[in-house]
Predict the structure.
Amino acid sequence: MHPVHVLRLCSVFEPLPSGEAAVDGRSARYDPIGGMQNHTATLTRCLDAQAHVQTVVTSRLAGGRGVTRLGRSAVVHRTGLPVPRLRQLWALDALRVVLRRPARPVDVVHAHQGEDLATLPLARLAARWHRCPLVVTVHCSVGHTLTGGGLRTRLLRALGGAVERSALRRADAVVVLTDRTAAALVADGVPAERVSTVPSGFDPRLFAGRPPDAFPGVGRPRIGYVGRLAPQKRADRLVEAFGRMREPASLVVVGDGPDRQRVHALAAGLPRVHLTGFVEHTAVPAVLASLDVLALPSAYEEMGSVLTEAMASGLPVVASDVGGIPEVVHHGVTGLLVPPGDADALAAALDRLAADPELRARLAAGALVRAEEYAWPRLAARVASVYARVREGDVLEAVA
């Protein structure tokens, strides 16, 4: 497989490391730090290790605007304004990078679509400008996954759904995280032969070994939440469910976000609740290794990349039976599934695991086996094969 030059467009990418204008905990309350960031960064690293050349164009989030290197040959351009309400303007600033003629021609434009309406139009323009195929990874389908009744959500589904539908029907290849989303997009008019399922995964290098206990002094069993404190993640519902548990346990909430105040208010006065705030992704393996159960009570979720990291850590999972989660968490094999939004059902599932160490051990063993399918080097090779396929089609079309 020949190396290619990929122009990667993504509204979020991992923040700069500590000491390099990194995103701090306060910024994490307003910026979308989570699975999509880790996905785009780890994919870039793995493809860099496979000798592909990559130009990444992303938003600056709350960090600095500028250019940094990643790995041997990947270059990351952080663009836009450090204003949360004007984050979409990153794409306008990105034009100065996207419309350059690089020394090595761009072979593939790869857009990563979440809840950001600006990425897809920018990607279509980039593909036309560089006269190359367009690949789109759908991290959250605003037309098929997004739920909720708020004004922002309704606007995203209406306007964003139309933008998404138009772009995906015209893309040379569409990568989705779950078969559920693949079926929905095909039913919506995306040709089936252009759709590939490649889930998010975990970086085996980060999960090798057994790190020291991240929470010394916190009682067991430990139930953990690791992720962004955002409305769709429903960490508040987890705190409510923990307050209804009958079995003794501790709750560790790791993360920050716009729901921070609500989560902290619900936790106030509850015994054995520990709120750590934001941690960098490099600290997540030690966090997960120090837990006994991971909970993900999301209202909607394309797949939930923290689930694969939890399985790599040998953790049983309690998660909402929603979106693509059931494709990752097999009920009774790697974890337990509960109806979304049902605090009593969530509390009952947590009680069941807290009271039964043998069940936890059996689900943990199943999780470790299942995790082998989600190692990032293997997944990155599948993405590279998508690049090869669209390039081959582009060459055949040019010859014809």
